[in-house]
Amino acid sequence: PADFLGNTVRESLPETETQGFLDVLYRACASGETCRVLEMKLSLNRPHAAQPKEGYFDFGFQPVRDSNGQTNSVLIHALEVTANVKARKVLEDTTKRFRLAQSAAQIGTWEWDPVEDRNALSSELYRMFGTSRSDPESAKRWMERVLPEDWPMVSQLMMEGHRRGKMEFEYRYQHPENGVRWFFCKGRRARGETRMYGIVQD
Q1: How many Cα atoms are found within 13 Å in the side-chain-facing hemisphere of 130?
Q2: Is the pLDDT of residue 170 over 90?
């Protein structure tokens, strides 16, 4: 409390002068409007708090009015979300590296639920199939491009695989730009679900 009581914000938190915090605070004072700022990055001097110097905060600025309707103070609610932001950034970086690895290895992932008649493909798998996520007929185009000689086998093994809970087979595919490709498909059904999850490798 001694760092704040009786001091101006500039005196209490001089390091925020150039980081945008004071700008938002003064804007709330001037406008009299409530505002929120999410995940504001601040570098703070807090050596005794056992907290990292750099942090991310969600702020709520609530002007308090007097009997004449004039703003005489601002209630600031601060929530530190550093751990959440850093965890999300790690996840985003991991996901990015995973997608790069998929692309380099020419591996796509899929989910398929024949009971609900739904499927979900990774971006890399759409690229491998030469189809588009925005095309509602993408599944039909995939079926049409499986070589006719291989389609009966593919169709049979997919349905058998769903009954058994696992599948593994190869087939040929006529890519619209890259010609005939050999694809290896492998998948398993999650326990207690009708969906299957798997990969396709070129």
Answers
A1: 16
A2: yes
